[in-house]
């Protein structure tokens, strides 16, 4: 307002001076003088209008579809996780989600691994197409962390300045979001390459996104062991969020499609099921609930779950995975059921070695593989023995110890559990470097739920453990 008034004043001064000059030159020419005054007033009005005119309001933007895809593991034996996410990327692109609306987090150490016989190529099914080609990777390597993921989905541009591509969700209240996470899990947490994302932290972020109106509807597909524990009795049904998980709160998810050329598993049952369904169905007609029902029925290795606002299940899959009608070409490939060789996710490292052993002809090579198998089994037993010692020292009771290391109590005391998980990872076995440990974190749940003081448990850890002496317990 001040600048407008100032410019207007200058205009008046300028015009007044001009008029006086003209009047002095020709006092008798009133008509000419009248035209000058009229033109001056018009000029002033035009100048004022430049400052007082309201900017035209933009038309309401059309709703957009956004996606965040996360593979939270590394290591060639975890090949399937990045294969799942790359495949998901292709499914979304084929159905019309623009690449600028897809944000991908993956360690990216598989495609060009020395163990990969087809460099630069990743497949997600036997004789499958290359799903790695064309994938735009936003965050790789050490940038694949819980913190990065949370900043991406919460739209924290400043927090990711200088990290990866820096891209985050830029969604608004009319937009839909699809999130697909694939990795290892444990009670109340999802694993990342070097740390963990706890359930309450994720819930807080989702609530904050809802309150800041970052989406109309949000759908999450989670592939991880015990993934139901991330949402069971935690996720409200009034946040416009719908979740399906590969497993309930207490069981494994399952790997599938062992490839004898690549010596690894190519996919995970739940992930393969939903993507194969998306590739053959008309997503403008199929509802989320129908896809969930199909995947739940066909995934008989674990109990696929749903959480949150179940009314969203009436919406079409295309509202989240893209509305384009572009089914994936089979290239003559005959479909193989992922259930034929499915194994619990936690058994994958040993199963890979057993597959290798069965095709070995050389005695020295067989002996080396058998040595590796015994080494893994020995390390696993050491971890279990350590946990038993911790429990026994904390309880001083054999009967209670036996229950705690075998029972399965429901996790509700998250505060205690989160502190014990962090303490166990710091004092005993770094979780991300000893993935087998995730399979036994239920012991920490049981101690918290049995009202054993966390201070007593941590003191027992200090007395029993040798910090980070062991790595590679897989």
Automatic annotation (TrEMBL):
Top EC category: hydrolase
Pfam families linked: Legum_prodom, Peptidase_C13
Swiss-Prot/TrEMBL keywords: Hydrolase, Protease, Signal, Thiol protease
Domain Legumain prodomain: 372-465
Gene Ontology biological process: proteolysis involved in protein catabolic process; vacuolar protein processing
Cleavable signal peptide: 1-24
Annotated active site: 184, 225 (nucleophile)
CC terms in the record's Gene Ontology section: vacuole
Lineage: superkingdom: Eukaryota
Catalytic activity entry: Hydrolysis of proteins and small molecule substrates at -Asn-|-Xaa- bonds
The family this protein is said to belong to: Belongs to the peptidase C13 family.
Protein name listed in UniProt: legumain
């Amino acid at each position: 307002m001040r600048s407008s008034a100032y410019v207007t004043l200058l205009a008046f001064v300028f015009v007044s001076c001009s008029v006086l000059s003209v009047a002095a030159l020709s006092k008798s020419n009133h008509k000419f003088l009248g035209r000058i005054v009229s033109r001056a007033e018009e000029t002033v009005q035009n100048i004022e209008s430049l400052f007082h005119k309201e900017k035209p309001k933009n038309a309401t933007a059309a709703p957009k579809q956004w996606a965040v895809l996360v593979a939270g593991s590394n290591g060639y034996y975890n090949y399937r996780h990045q294969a799942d996410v790359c495949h998901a990327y292709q499914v979304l692109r084929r159905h019309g989600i623009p690449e600028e609306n897809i944000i991908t987090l993956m360690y990216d150490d598989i495609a060009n691994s020395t163990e990969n016989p087809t460099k630069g190529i990743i497949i997600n099914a036997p004789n499958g197409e290359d799903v790695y080609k064309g994938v735009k990777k936003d965050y790789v390597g050490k940038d694949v962390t819980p913190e990065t993921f949370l900043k991406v989905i919460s739209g924290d541009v400043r927090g990711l300045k200088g990290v990866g591509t820096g891209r985050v969700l830029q969604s608004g209240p009319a937009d839909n979001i699809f999130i697909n996470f694939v990795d290892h899990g444990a009670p109340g947490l999802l694993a990342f390459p070097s740390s963990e994302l706890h359930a309450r932290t994720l819930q807080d972020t989702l609530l904050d996104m809802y309150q800041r109106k970052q989406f109309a509807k949000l759908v999450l597909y989670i592939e991880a062991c015990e993934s139901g524990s991330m949402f069971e009795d935690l996720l409200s049904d009034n946040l416009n969020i719908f979740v399906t998980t590969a497993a309930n709160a207490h069981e494994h998810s399952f790997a599938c499609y062992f490839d004898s050329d690549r010596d690894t598993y190519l996919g995970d049952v739940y992930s393969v099921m939903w993507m194969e369904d998306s590739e053959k169905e008309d997503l403008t007609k199929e509802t989320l609930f129908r896809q969930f029902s199909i995947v739940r029925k066909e995934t008989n290795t674990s109990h696929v779950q749903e959480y949150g606002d179940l009314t969203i299940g009436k919406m079409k899959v295309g509202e989240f995975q893209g509305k384009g009608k572009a089914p994936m070409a089979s290239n003559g490939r005959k479909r193989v059921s992922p259930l034929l060789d499915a194994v619990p996710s936690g058994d994958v490292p040993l199963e890979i070695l057993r597959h290798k052993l069965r095709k070995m002809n050389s005695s020295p090579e067989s002996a080396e593989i058998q040595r590796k198998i015994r080494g893994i089994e020995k390390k696993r037993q050491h971890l279990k023995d350590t946990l038993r010692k911790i429990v026994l020292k904390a309880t001083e009771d054999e009967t209670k110890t036996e229950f705690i290391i075998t029972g399965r109590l429901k996790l509700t005391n998250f505060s205690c559990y989160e502190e014990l998980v962090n303490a166990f990872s710091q004092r005993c076995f770094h979780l991300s470097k000893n993935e087998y440990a995730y399979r036994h974190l239920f012991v920490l749940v049981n101690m918290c739920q049995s009202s054993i003081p966390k201070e007593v448990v941590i003191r027992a850890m200090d007395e029993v453990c040798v910090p980070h002496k062991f790595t590679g317990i897989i």
